[in-house]
Amino acid sequence: MTKKKGRYSRELKRERKRCREEGNGATFEVEQHQDDATKNPKKQRRKKLSIFERLVKCFNESKHTGSVQMDEAGDHDPVASVRIITGCDWNESKHAFPPDTTGDTLTLRVQPLLILDMNGILCHRSRHTKEPVGVQLRPSIGMTAQTSIIPRTELEEILRYLDRHFCLAIWTSAKRRTANRLLKMLLPPEIRQRLLFVWGQNYCQAENVSPISTENSVESEKEKLEESESDDDDEDNDDTVYEKRLDKVWKAFPLWSADNTLLMDDSPEKCTSSTSNAIHPPAIHGRTKDSIDGTENQNILLCDEENERLQLEFFQKLTTFWTQQPHLRSLAKVHKTKHQSQEMMSYSNLIDFLESNARRHFGWRSGNGI
């Protein structure tokens, strides 16, 4: 029969008193502490990793992407510094920055990180009630969250090109369930399994949340699981903006930084904290060429085919840039503590490239908003 909590507490106190009287108090306390630790493993403190350990951990967890390589290490231990070399071509990367021969430097080679939005970049999600009267759309490949999914006209071609030259990731403001469905519809399986990460709305920072949204956020787990398909992403919340903060990415994946990361999202308001590392081409709208009448806003003046052509040209130039100008980021240990490191060298011409190639059609702005 189960003992009441009060009775159990009294018996525990009596047992402790008896152990102290017999000289076994210390042993009892240690055993009790060990039992508590076993029952509550979360109480045990995690070992804090040094930046070098975090980089190696990130490397090991990113191998599935095919976008990382490690030069053969020498016999020297411990490692005194780490080089992170970014480029689209492994051979050109090694030609520009040959493997270290001293043995005390760990060299990690990575491809640039390209983070893609889905709606507006890979496809158009059509809410038929919001489409202008008389507009003709290309054929849909399926439905999710009460929207028709119309992919880019050259979707597989552009994905395979980007997959060869970049480390790809997906970040959408859609909820996880819809994001997973879109992935299966839009990405070939071999590219899906090489993605560095797939993040949804739960990784975004909600801004301008209305009071009604705040009140409704206090709901039961059952209600969250039974959320309606129509209430699937930010487009159903008029005032809420789901911002994508790249510092979250760089904290989770420290091999990448502001020097070698680019976010592609058609909504500038979702990238206000990382303007220098984000581009915003016009959204894919899914219309046939015959539906482009040139009378609507400037983002709709181009047919999708022309928009996609300009995007491919941009990425071809970006690939050439990263191939011809690999980027070196070097970190050295600070001897005062193993958890500190010093940035010895980190200069990227990425901002200069974007300044010259991504302003007009891609809506790029510098960090100061100009």
Automatic annotation (TrEMBL):
In the bilayer, the protein is annotated as: Single-pass membrane protein
GO BP terms: protein transport
Please give the GO cellular component terms listed in this UniProt entry.
TIM23 mitochondrial import inner membrane translocase complex
The segments labelled Disordered in the record are: 1-46, 210-239
Q: Which PROSITE patterns match?
A: FCP1
Q: Which residues form the FCP1 homology domain?
A: 107-318
The protein's UniProt keywords, in alphabetical order, are:
Mitochondrion, Protein transport, Transit peptide, Translocation, Transport
Short name of any one Pfam family annotated for the protein: NIF
InterPro entries to which the protein is assigned, alphabetical: FCP1_dom, TIM50
Where does this chain mainly localize? mitochondrion
| Coiled-coil spans in chain | none
- Chain intervals with Acidic residues compositional bias: 228-239
Q: Where is the composition biased (Basic and acidic residues)?
A: 8-23, 30-39
What does the sequence similarity comment in the record state about its family? Belongs to the TIM50 family.
This protein's name? Mitochondrial import inner membrane translocase subunit TIM50
